[in-house]
Amino acid sequence: MTRNKRLSMWSSLMPYLGGKRRLCPLIFREVDRILPRKLWPGLTFLDGFLGGGSVSLYAKAQGFRVVSVDIAERSIVVGRALIQNSSVRLRREDILRVAADKYEPPAQVEQNYAPQAFTRAQARLLDRILAMAGEARDMARQGLLRLLAVRVALLCHAMSSVRTGTIHRLSSGEYENITPSCLKGYVEGLRLNRPDRLWKVAQQINAGVFQGEAQVLKADIVKLLPTIEADIAYFDPPYPGVTSYEKEYKIIDEILEGTALPVSPFSAKDGASMIDGLFKQAKNIPVWILSLGNAEVTLGELEQKMRGYGREVKATEIRYMHKPSQSSEEKRQQNREFILVGWDPDAELIHNPSLTTVAAQGEA
Fold first, then answer.
1. Burial (Cβ within 10 Å: 0-12, 13-18, ≥19) of residue 124
2. Which pTM value belongs to this model?
3. Is 334 a residue whose pLDDT tops 70?
4. What gap in Å lies between CA 97 and CA 128, rounded to an integer?
5. Same domain for 216 and 200
6. 255 and 353 share a domain?
7. Which CATH number covers residue 351?
């Protein structure tokens, strides 16, 4: 895949807390050292925590058959729009339709979130997009429109953080009371009703639609793991001891799910203990990849966990910043990302990867 194609592909995804797009080349380089790239089209890649979709999308672009799992609808929306979808795209007529305000009675977003989280015009736009998604006959188009709604909601706010408490000042004209560094983002959000701006976002989303084989499942990965057949499992659970996804995306979750979600046990200070449950359930998968932050656990502790399940392990620590614009200098200096690759030395896939891949292709 060319560099320009990769950049275009990334534009389809929403900015996501903990997203891995910058780490994908490193992650898949480590896979290549165990299972050569030429074999990837015959292998199944499990992404156990779909999140913002970057790793699943990259795996699909590399030719893997992808199985993506998540428990949150915000992630499933990405999966249905881009990972599982190979051909359906947003059309300009879709954009012209949702951009036109027919002044219908207030719906969900306008009723519940205007003006405290969105201006009235923004809320009405979101309601129109979601209404069209509800009318869509196929899952791919529904996913694309719901992803468009999420992208628009994030773009309404500075630094893509949907919050109450500031945006209402746009409606009251109190621009001078908005932090200067955030004001431009809020003002740009006021222009999203314009068809040309909305179509630009739609084109970015369309750039992530390409051919590939994938399945998206809304489920608890720990419970589902024993039923999944895969060659590689990538685990990027919520990081222990840091801001939870459920807090960061509370309003998005309420809009998509109808309610806020309970905080994942992985996000607790002792959340690293949950990783043992993943490994126990994934014994049948030859190769594991784990990403985790350094807030509450060390690289050595994680390596010991993985080796405890009979895996050979390569562990890497790199400096990595999530949302650097919102992090203190101290945080930026301290933050580290751990990437561990563990493989079963006795697995047939490791000993004879070519034979295993040929057999799988023959069954298909």
1. buried
2. 0.91
3. no
4. 9
5. no
6. yes
7. 3.40.50.150
